[in-house]
Amino acid sequence: MPSVFIKTYGCQMNERDSEAVAAQLVAKGYVLAKSEAAADVVLLNTCSVRDFAEQKAINKMGNILGTARSEQRTQITGFMGCMAQSRGRELIDRLPDVDLVLGTQKFHRAAEYLDELLAGKRDKIVDVEAEAKSEATIREHLLNGSAKTSVSAFVSIMQGCNQHCTFCIVPATRGEERSRTIPDIVAECRELAARGVREITLLGQIVTSYGRREQRDIWQVTSDMKQPAEPHETPLCHSSLSTLHSSPFVQLLEAVHEIDGLERIRFTSPHPKGYGDDLVAAYARLPKLCESAHLPLQSGSDRLLKLMHRGYTREKFLGLTRKLRRARPGIGLTTDIIVGFPGETEEDFEQTLSLCREVEFDNAYIFKYSPRRDTPAAAMPDQVPVAVREERNHRLLDLVNDIAARKYDAFIGRQVQILVEGPSRKNAARYTGRTRCNKIVLFDGGERHRGQLMDVKIERTGSFTLYGDPAIVNV
Ligand code: SAM
Asked: From the alpha carbon of 170, which atom of ligand 1 is closest?
């Protein structure tokens, strides 16, 4: 059977899409190759959020095609995901040896198209059309494909984004928000729990907008849906008082929380606007919901937040961090920040620095602004010079790293509960797990620890890593 190698760029949603494509291909008899050179089929799952990510994937494909040509190997190659969606046939015009361009609503067609290409029935395939119900097709898992996923799994709950932040290309690459139904998502989570998964991360471009367009339809059971693994369980119903007053996303959290065997629930990526009082209260009320929240800030300046079309102010954001810390003391808070958005002055940037000092994020993902095609920000005046973006990026990184190092050091001597995911990628003698507030812990462990919830004492810290003492491991 043909072998396939999939390389993924970008976010966890892309990782999840790649896993679903890999699972689909394995189910059809494909084998997963360890490297691109050894594969009959190479697929690059791409990201469009910044130009850098697009160029990396294009260069990579250029190298793959060049090597195959010089070694006189025949290989089927394809782009899929966000850049495939936004550039479509243009990618084949640029790299004529590419065989397949598969958009973000077409991942489930990968096997069918590859079969046609491998059989020589078609020469090139470009499919970036919208497809109704495609949000429900990212469903299959490769649980034994990697150590990590057998303990912890990602579940895609929705596709698309309706926020239209002025810097962001995602609404164009992922389309309008479309949500799966709660019974469908719960059935998938139940199957995962039955196969040994103990932690689930609910995924979407803006998970806090889950089900807003569908409202009551999110409870519908559709005939093409797989039934729950434990059919004897009480059917889900949405008649409890708390559920009726909750947003669709909190209704989903409550439903997933009911699943036996699941120990931990996380979600990403949310929008700060989406943390209503019901979601904040869910942190206090649902013990499986881990005390960790990602709050993409983007800027600490109200002027820029308005230009970015973010829909909250600095004060609202700060209020939210206080509410979350009240609901769950010790909650881990992380964020995304863009530096060098058009028109960002030194004073605006200072506002971002001061907000970071005030909140003390546990980690922050900092992005240098990258103009994206057909986004309003790309046409805004006062684009910030690249050198200034670089300099602000360094300054903010230094601050974020200093704060995080202090916060990590504060764990030394403390006992924390971790869920063990498997061996560390860098050192197989070490095992890795995460605290509830989403910090990575390394300890000298073994296979017997995989999937265990256990307490370790933190002895020392490294860069965004805690080291636990195996001597006091309690299993
Ligand atoms: N849920 C997130 C939110 O509230 O905006 C969106 C996730 S987005 C796919 C990941 C991050 O990429 C954003 O939070 C933003 O910081 C960054 N990003 C998006 N567009 C960007 C651009 N044009 N330049 C630089 N960074 C960008």
From this structure: 9
